[in-house]
Amino acid sequence: MPGPSAELVQQLYRTPPDRFVAARDAAVAEARRGGDPTTARQLARLRRPTVAAWLVNLLAIRRPELVADLVQLADALRAAQRELRGPRLRELSAQRRAVVAALVAEVRKLAAAEPDAPPAGRLPLAEVEATLNAAFSDVEVAEQVRAGRLLRATSYAGFGEVPRPQLRLVTGNDEEPEEERPTGRPGAQRGRPEAAPRTDRAAERAEQAERTAQRAARAERARQRRALERELTKAQAGQERAEAELTEATGQERDGVAVLDGIETELAELERRRAVAEQDLSRAKLARRAAERAVTVARRRAGEVEAAVEALAAEEGDADMGGGAAD
Fold first, then answer.
1. 195 phi, psi to nearest 5 deg
2. Helix (H) or strand (E) holding 260
3. pLDDT of residue 200
4. What CA–CA distance (Å, rounded) separates 56 from 149?
5. What's the pLDDT tens digit per position in 178-214?
6. Which residue of 149, 152, 192, 317 has the fewest C-beta atoms within 10 A of its own C-beta?
7. What is the widest separation between alpha-carbon atoms in the chain?
8. At what angle do helices 64-83 and 139-147 cross, to 10 degrees?
9. Other CB atoms closer than 10 Å to residue 117's CB: what's the count?
10. Residue 162 · residue 93 · CB < 8 Å
11. C-alpha distances out from residue 28 to 22, 46, 73, 317, Å
12. Least confident of 147-156, 254-263, 276-285, 291-300
């Protein structure tokens, strides 16, 4: 089996860190269901990146052309360091600062477009910047950045511009170092006046590059400030809406409690009246049963008396009939 595709790995490292493990485990399960244990094992070995590393990966995946420019500039900067070319080194260093600032700004934009990214105020942009700066001095870091598979942010404490004293030694005569030694030859004396104009031009280019970088940095800070001010305005408006909704919900809750209290009071009164009515009903039932018994007794007594009257009347009739026969 060939293992996981580059698209799948890239998709996983595009996933925000808090969802990386779930996405990776789902991909592992899918590979196992598809009968591909090799891919499943390789996917299971992938580790979750930190938030800063994820942001750098996101930049490499979404904007590979920008990262390619960074790597190209890093190669040129390292070459200038090796060759100790002062003016070129200062020019490239200014470009480096401008490029890193632009890439950090792009990272912020990419993160804002991700639905599950941390809020802008919690983005570890300083770690992102340190990692991008490290890519200028460390070829391995540069390749990891370009691959989009960083696991954690990195930094390079000994980054890369040649120490300042060495820059002073090579500035102005790095093209023709032999002119430092007086030879007494006319050619050498004629060559010395040309070194100063070259030095001035190199210094002027370096200053211009520095000013360009400073303008880019100021523009970036102004853009960030405007973005933060817009975000603050939105946040304050959202806070006002939320507080108004809270006030309304609190009033509705208070009204609901009052209505419920009233209903519970009415229910208690109805329960009391029901208990009284049940007691009255029980007493009425007892009275009805007693009356029924009394009626039964009275009917029986009335029947007995009626029978006695009828018997007496019969006896009287018989007696009258016997007396008439004797006469």
1. -65, -40
2. helix 186-326
3. 58
4. 9
5. 333 344 444 434 444 444 444 456 556 656 666 776 6
6. 317
7. 207
8. 170
9. 20
10. no
11. 10, 10, 38, 120
12. 254-263
Reported as type and span, the H/E element at residue 227 is helix 186-326
What is the Cα–Cα distance from 70 to 61, expressed in whole angstroms? Answer: 14
Instruction: Return the amino acid letter for 309.
Output: V
Distances (CA, A) of 278 to 12, 22, 272, 304: 72, 64, 10, 39
Collect all residues with Cβ–Cβ distance below 8 Å to 188 and sequence separation of at least 6.
178, 179, 182
**Closest by CA position to 35, among listed 1, 9, 5, 7:** 1
**What pTM was estimated for this model as a whole?**
0.46
- Collapsing DSSP states into helix, strand and coil, what is residue 229? helix
Amino acid at position 278, single letter: E
Q: Are 103 and 59 in contact (CB under 8 A)?
A: yes
Whose structure tokens read 């260093």?
Answer: 93
Are 94 and 76 in contact, with CB atoms under 8 Å apart? Answer: no
Amino acid, res. 10: Q
C-beta of residue 52 within 8 angstroms of C-beta of residue 128: yes
**Per the structure block, which two tokens stand in for 132?**
């991008």
- Name the token pair of 189: 């004396």
Q: Tell me the residue type at 11.
A: Q
Q: Which of 207, 74, 41, 199 is nearest to 144 (CA)?
A: 74
Residue 246 token pair? 């809270």
129, HSE (Cβ side, Cα atoms, 13 Å): 14
CA distance 166 to 175: 15
The torsion angles phi and psi of 49, rounded to 5 degrees, stand at -80, 160
The answer to whether residues 76 and 95 touch, using CB atoms and an 8 Å cutoff, is no
Residue 66 near residue 59, CB atoms below 8 Å: yes
In terms of residues, how long is the chain? 327
- Min mean pLDDT across 140-149, 164-173, 266-275 is at 164-173
- Tokens 């490499």 belong to which residue? 60
CA distance 150 to 20: 13
Distance CA 154, CA 134 (A): 7
